[in-house]
Amino acid sequence: MTESPSVGVLVAALPEKYQPIFAHPELSDGSSRGCEDRLVLIRACARHLQAELGRPLRVLDLGCAQGFFSLSLASDGHRVHGVDFLDLNVHVCQALAGQNPGLDATFEHGTVEDVIELLEPDAYDLVLGLSVFHHLVHARGIVSVSELCRKLSEVAGAAIYELALREEPLYWAASLPQDPAELLSSYAFTRLLSRQPTHLSTIARPLIFASSRFWYVGDSIGTFNSWSGEAHAHGRGTHHHSRRYYFGERVFVKKMTLGMGGRAEINLQEFHNEAAFLRNPPAAFPAPRLIVTLDDSSDVFLAREMMEGRLLSELIDDGSPYDADQVISELIDQLVILERDGLYHNDVRCWNVLISGEGRAVLIDYGAISQDANDCSWLGDLLLSFLITIKEILERRIVPSTPGREPALDFMSLPPRYRNAFIRLFSQDQSRWTFAGLQDCLAHSGNETTPVPEWTVIYQHLQGALLSYNTRLRALYMQTEHDRVELTARAAALERVRETAQQAQESLAALKIEAELADNRRRELEESFQQQAAWAKELEARAVSSEEDGQHLAARVVELEAANASSFARIGELEVELEERQHARELAEFLAADLGRLTEERNILQVKVSDAQRLSEQQETTINELRSKAASLHRRLERLETSRAHDRRRLKELQVDLSQRVQTMGSSRARVRELEAAVEVLEGQIDRLYASRSWRLTAPVRWFSAKVLKRGASPVGIPAPRAVAAAAPGDLASPADAASEKRLAALDQLGSRIRQSKQ
Known about the structure:
By secondary structure, this protein is α+β, with helices and mostly antiparallel strands. Helix content is about 55%, strand content about 10%.
């Protein structure tokens, strides 16, 4: 694609070329950041999301800069709307969109916060917020920006954020939260896509996918209808809020965080257990299909087929009917299948049993399946733990699990068939305590009453003692929790008391200083009073007058103290004003140097323009000479046309050469016209600068630099700028000076561009 002069001029006027220029590699050199690596990840996400929705996406690019991501996604067929607070960026984006009319891309000049506040629900499928929100945090605070992200989580399908970190050595870093994910806490699902290097420091920034509607694991995207931080109602923070579960119509997704201290190792082990089991489950075990797994070193994700049914614990809690014998029989069948393959489920609980619509029981929580033949509870033995689960199923009551699982091991209270089976099993050697052995004992046990061994009496006494111990332990645990909460409250109160005491000490120190000052003042007054008393003794006749003088003197002292305080305040103001004037002087020196450089550049540019005009005149003379030569050759051709075929061929060659020269001269004239137009634009901008308010306001500074400091004087031969209105001696540079400096920099870039084009 040939370079458009208008785009080149707009790019040259940018204060910073942050991104590559879309479809213009010749203009992309010197851009602050590369974008191709992030574009690959964003395009992949957009492609998977498009496949899930079945249509092109509606994309909102917040802080679009020069529009590289917006136009790249639009070239993939998506409809994109970009927003940026800098109008120069928006002008570049609109010019690029005009060069590519086939792309569905629009751009808007505005602030991120204003755009978010006006968003309607479901207006966009994907939002991009790449390295823009840390500026908002610095300006508006963490709470305000978190609220903006919450609004995005509610109205947009998904978002990709690139977030700055507090560790970066930049001025806004102190305003950022310790964990950047705090800004995205309102999203149900988040995933770290990568860590991206920047041009500002060696610290890489996280690129995060966030959504409250879609899960994104590996190369798969799907929707979820609900999610929870607990797998079941009896979780009660067992995993310290390090897990999230997402429920869709056909897919179940589990996310486990690896950054939660002691839970990291447990989460990682259970992730590997579940992935390994679902990849190769035993043939007869009713396991769901594994879809995808992901370990990104920060979190682990597992997506599998969603199984239909309700948890057995939910049926027990709400009193729903189920066939207890069938449930126990099917659970034992599945445990025997695992046992034959050398696998064991170390967490057989009612909340890990799924009851289908047909009443069939399926054992879930595949992360608890491993080759370790131990239960996760303090009991350790799998059969004793399963005995408690059987009692829960038969009695339709889940035993307490806090602080530890209640040891409800009294099998004598079970129905006769189960009681006889456990008596038969526990009468054998412990090496034969297996699920296959329990299955065999149940198969050979009936409902008849059998003699009870004497050892069961001791067992019952131990059961009662364990229950009593567990009751006391639970009470102690509850008391400990109560004490912990109370201690926490007391610690907070103590901290407040310490803060109050510190403030009181500071106030006391201030009061002591004031007391010392008052004491000094009192002594001074006492001395004055003694003098007045002496005068009173000597001049008793003037006692009344002396008393009035003393009162007047006290009032005068108060006035002097007030005047003294005012003087101190004035001294502070003068110090601030002195610093401001010193800063203004430094700015004036910089401005004088920049102004001298600008006038020198303008002088050189005018010389170049004169050279271009002379070159144009020479080219016109050459054209006239070539035309005369062509006419002469034509007459010569007429004389020799009948006799010389060679001359005829030579004439054709001269005609071709003439045509090429005429075309060359036409393009030279067009180039000269472009240069003249650029020079007129430059001169017009310089004239507007001279006529601007900031130029007039800084006139005293320029005069001071030129006349007093002897800096920034106009070169010889360059006309001085037009006269401006005199400003007050105390005027300082206005905020418009910063804009003037940016315009001068843009003009400087434009002049350099014109000189390079001429060369």
